[in-house]
């Protein structure tokens, strides 16, 4: 069973660890890693979440993301999740920390809460996406899209994309700075 370290509202470890079910039922803060993959054309890699996942099934999302296990860093999480979800082996030095963002999702009727402090990383890789080894339980497909297309997608209220409004705004600003 995977255990996750609980944080206080300021992001400081409380010393308590819990499993994922408890993590999301009791409104607890925890860390996660989000990884955005770009290629030399400046396109972003999106993953489509599998139809069988518990949250945001069949929706487009961040290239790679995952909860940080107790005792791990978000950088270790980023590396592990890139391998688990896409079959990628990425060196630690290839992950560039862009920013940290807090995210709160509350669905009390479903007894679901997700209070995350997300370290957001960027990895620049030219990939042949047809050769990726997608984790079928998590990811159904991937695609590269231009930043312009990405902006259109996140502005479309009918689009099937997971809402990370604060993160998307900061990501677009960070990508523009890097040009």
Notable traits:
3-stranded antiparallel beta sheet; 4-stranded mixed beta sheet; 179 residues; Nucleoside Triphosphate Pyrophosphohydrolase
Question: Your description of this structure?
Answer:
- The protein is built from 4 helices and 9 strands, in the order ββαββββαβββαα.
- With 179 residues, the chain is an alpha+beta fold.
- The strands form 3 sheets. It has a 4-stranded mixed sheet with strand order 6-3-8-7, with helices on both faces.
- It is globular and about 45 Å long.
- The model has no long low-confidence stretch (mean pLDDT 94).
In the predicted model, the low-confidence regions spanning at least 5 consecutive residues are: none
Q: Helix tally? A: 4
Widest sheet, order of strands: 6-3-8-7
Mean pLDDT: 94
What is the straight-line distance between the termini?
A: 43 Å
CATH architectural arrangement: Alpha-Beta Complex
> What number of structural domains do the residues give?
1
Listing every helix as H and every strand as E from the N terminus to the C terminus, the arrangement reads EEHEEEEHEEEHH
Question: What structural class do helix, strand and pairing data support?
Answer: alpha+beta
């Amino acid at each position: 069973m995977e255990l996750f370290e609980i944080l206080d509202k300021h992001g400081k470890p409380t010393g308590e660890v819990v499993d994922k079910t408890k993590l999301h039922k009791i409104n607890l803060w925890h860390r996660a890693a989000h990884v955005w993959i770009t290629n030399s054309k400046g396109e972003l890699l999106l993953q489509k979440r599998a139809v069988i996942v518990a949250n945001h099934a069949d929706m487009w999302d961040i290239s790679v993301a995952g909860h940080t296990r107790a005792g791990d860093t978000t950088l270790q999480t980023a590396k592990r999740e890139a391998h688990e979800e896409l079959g990628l082996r990425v060196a630690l030095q290839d992950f560039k920390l862009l920013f940290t963002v807090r995210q709160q999702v509350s669905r009390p009727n479903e007894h679901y809460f997700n209070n995350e402090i997300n370290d957001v990383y960027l990895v620049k890789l030219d990939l042949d996406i047809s050769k990726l080894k997608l984790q079928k339980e998590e990811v159904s497909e991937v695609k590269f899209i231009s930043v312009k297309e990405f902006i259109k997608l996140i502005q479309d209220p009918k689009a099937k994309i997971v809402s990370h409004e604060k993160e998307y705004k900061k990501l677009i600003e960070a990508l523009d700075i890097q040009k």
